Amino acid sequence: MRYLPLTAEDRRHMLGAIGARGIDDLFRDVPPSVLLAKPVDLPLHKGELEVERAFAALAAKNVAAGSVPFFCGAGAYRHHVPAAVDHLIQRSEFLTSYTPYQPEISQGTLQALFEFQTQVALIAGMDVANASMYDGSTAAAEAVAMASRITRRRKAVLSGALHPHYVDTIGTLAGALGIAVERGPWDPGGIENLASRLGPDVACVVVQNPNFFGYVRDHAALAEACRKAGALLVVVVNEVVSLGLLRSPGTMGADIVVAEGQSIGNALNFGGPYLGLFATRDKYLRQMPGRLCGETVDADGKRGFVLTLSTREQHIRREKATSNICTNSGLCALAFTIHMALLGEAGFRRLAELNHAAAVRLADKLSGVKGIKIQNDAFFNEFTVRLARPAAEVVETLAAKRVIAGVPVSRLVPEERTLEDFLLVAATETTTEADMDALVAGLKEMSA
Amino acid sequence: MNAKTFTGHRGLDLEEPLLFEQDQAGRTGVDLPAPAPVKDRLGGLRRDGAIGLPGLAEPQVVRHFVRLSRMNYAIDAGIYPLGSCTMKHNPRLNEKLARLPGLSDIHPLQPMSTVQGALELLDTLAFWLKTLTGMPGVALSPAAGAHGELCGLLAIRAAHEAKGKKPSVVLVPESAHGTNPATAAAAGYAVESIPANAQGRVDVAALKAKLGPNVAAVMVTNPNTCGLFEPEVVEIAAAVHAAGAYFYADGANFNAIVGKVRPGDLGVDAMHINLHKTFSTPHGGGGPGSGPVVLSAALAPHAPLPWVVAGPKGFAALEHKKGTASFGRLRAYFGQMGMFVRALAYMMSHGADGLRQVAEDSVLNANYVLARLKDVMSPAFDGPCMHEALFDDRFLEGTGVTTLDFAKAMIDEGCHPMTMYFPLVVHGALLIEPTETESRESLDGFVAMLRHLAERAKAGDKARFLEAPKLAPRRRLDEVRAARAPVLRYRPKPRAAAE
């Protein structure tokens, strides 16, 4: 076995040193009735070549996004990741180290986390960010729990244009914690008024920007209404690239910003691992979930970094912790940090411009197709179109012709029949003119 | 001690400023084309003012992160004996496979007809996990161990509710990982602690005394955090079930028994499996993890969405609650696909025979370390251990050296310390988990080093320990200062007209 260094002679020698008669002598605390006498019924070990063949066969049964015109978004976006990112995150010292519990020999991870926290706080327009959460959806659920702790109120109002998986994820955690969740009606027209739902029992309002249907909205007035009502405004960002071009949630008055950070540095990966970003105001720092990296000095006075404020965390506070999170998305956060470092101010802003320009171009092209109506007045790199027939059918038909047209809203909200004809279409810097033309041609063919 | 240098670098140890301290306007590490001139449709919400991100060219960025990386210890560089963390070798084949475009460049919401291989992979992984644990159900979506614990408790809550019951207490041994009580609280339960007995096991009598109609579940780690198998586990499960509660097992230590014991045979109702421990997906400096939860027949119907189902037209995912008893959704999409690829590749590489050998060798390695150190360090309990060897700090009594000092001295010897001060039930705990991927020579070197340090401590060489580490990229860091006035991000030196 290539991963197991012990030889038969090693094992004999070591058992002798221990004074054990055989290996099962060491398993003597296990009741004999449950100790398996032989291997379980699964295939035996395989060499690299055979394993590689098995996975190549599985991979061949999928259509890779990069191999076709591709327009899916809805919270996960295909972007170009510079080659240096994947090379650097595979450095052994980053890839195969543990959580930095011994800071003297973990400064690489810690300094990168400090840089990550700074980048996240800057793009979100907030004071402070943590060292990552699992993904955007779980970060959103944690934000609701945190708002409830801060306000001591037990109701969350969710936008009707919040990603449906996020609605469900929030609902799961809130349900367990006894926090009531009230969601406005699905809002494909971008017209909801959430301020009217505020009340003395509301802990937070959760909005998404750009929202699930792609609309871009100013939440400054809502933030002000929340402030007056004693509620927190939680802003969810599904597409972090948008922050290169749009006014930040912090500028709009958000109290907590959570985001899915996958777009920067991370592949689509069929939905995970992704990267939850979590940022807030200084005054709420001690109610924050997750790890925090802070600056300090060592015994020689040199600057260094440590995990800090861990009295919020499970390994110290146990059932009184702000969250049960332990392992987070460290390496995904590192990929984000490296990609963002490569982009820099100019690159991040230009990347966002390119995404918006691609989406505008696509919207222009689609608006010329009979039977298609673009819904959004304002958007970033994704928008909603209304088709003349159920979107799922259209997507399935075009997929057979190797065009992945987008995400039918019905995939996420099947119970709402009025949304059956709506399709979410995203474009990024990876989308070419030829890709757009293929989509237009496919849709024209279907509407002919 | 160390000669001061002009640069602050010391040989191959290179100091590195923050990215933000290397900013030059006009520098970038990407060449992006100019966007097509379009009239924007941002609804007047264009950002104004600078964000504050630094500009660096690619060579600088690469050098920055390479220098940072060299300040980290890693399992690829040496033994990483963190108890309870299972720092084993991470096969590079798995990294390669996780990056196949057909597995990494696929979107969670593209049509299911275009991701049949991905769904098949989920189904295959589920089959391996169910077979290895002897459990009928599995939920793949939890993002890490603690998330898996939450998944298990929410399934338990749903099962109770389906029977019209609302018990409010979860029992957790005091030796448990901190995530156990934190998760129980996150799932809305009150936590009651069960003491350990003098042999480092759950006090079964105390546990039984606490069981009652208000108990929803008991969470037990097995092998436990003292590195010991709970010999009365079957009896515990039976008592828990008789009281109408469910038995949650923390599977953090599954490495010790994979292929040797099936948790299903022990009466377990739910157990998370840390793919980043037993199945070798890299820890990445803190994540990502992956925490699938295997479920008993009683809990499987309540598993979170989505469910992968095999049908006449291939695989499909059931993504909506209607018509199911699922407790709902734990997160967006399917779970940590990138980790599933790596874990399944690891399982297939080892096979049924190799996985069993993993358990045996991990237990053998830990017992070898225990046997070779028991005369100079103080084992916390008698008898053989499972995959980790636990010592307390009695051997340091009267030396003026603490567990922390001892651990820091290991750093100067070029070794990552073991887990310190955990489990809490043992004074000054030192928990060593070598894993099966250490060779006998590696263990002999490790043991020799620890024997030397133990002897030096007893010989009165206190100063060496109190000053350690002296040879690492940093000496001991001031954690009190970090927490008292937290500096959690870079802020530019004040200059006129910032923002």
Concise overview:
The complex is a heterodimer of chains A (448) and B (499). Chain A is an alpha/beta fold.
Describe this protein's structure.
The complex is a heterodimer of chains A (448) and B (499). Chain A is α/β, with parallel strands linked by helices and 448 residues long. Chain A has two domains: 66-80 and 345-447, Aspartate Aminotransferase, domain 1; 83-339, Aspartate Aminotransferase, domain 2, CATH 3.40.640.10. Chain A contains 14 helices and 13 strands. Chain A has helices spanning 8-18, 48-60, 83-89, 92-95, 107-124, 136-151, 164-177, 220-229, 249-252, 314-317, 330-366, 391-400, 409-412, 433-447; strands at 128-129, 155-158, 180-183, 204-208, 232-237, 256-260, 276-280, 292-297, 303-308, 373-374, 382-386, 407-408, 422-426. In chain A, the strands form three sheets. In chain A, strands 1-7-6-5-4-2-3 form a seven-stranded mixed β-sheet, sandwiched between helices. A four-stranded antiparallel β-sheet of chain A has the order 10-11-13-12. A two-stranded antiparallel ribbon of chain A has the order 8-9. In chain A, helix 6 crosses helix 7 (164-177). Chain A is globular, with a radius of gyration of 25 Å. Chain B has 499 residues and is of the alpha/beta class. Chain B folds into three domains: 8-28 and 50-71, no CATH class; 93-347, Type I PLP-dependent aspartate aminotransferase-like (Major domain) (Aspartate Aminotransferase, domain 2, 3-Layer(aba) Sandwich), CATH 3.40.640; 357-474, Aspartate Aminotransferase, domain 1, CATH 3.90.1150. Chain B contains 14 helices and 13 strands. In chain B, the strands form three sheets. Chain B has a seven-stranded mixed β-sheet with strand order 1-7-6-5-4-2-3, with helices on both faces. In chain B, helix 2 runs antiparallel to helix 10, helix 4 runs parallel beside helix 10 and helix 10 (337-373) packs across helix 12. Chains A and B meet through helix 1, helix 2, helix 3, helix 4 and helix 5 of A and helix 1, helix 2, helix 3, helix 4 and helix 5 of B.
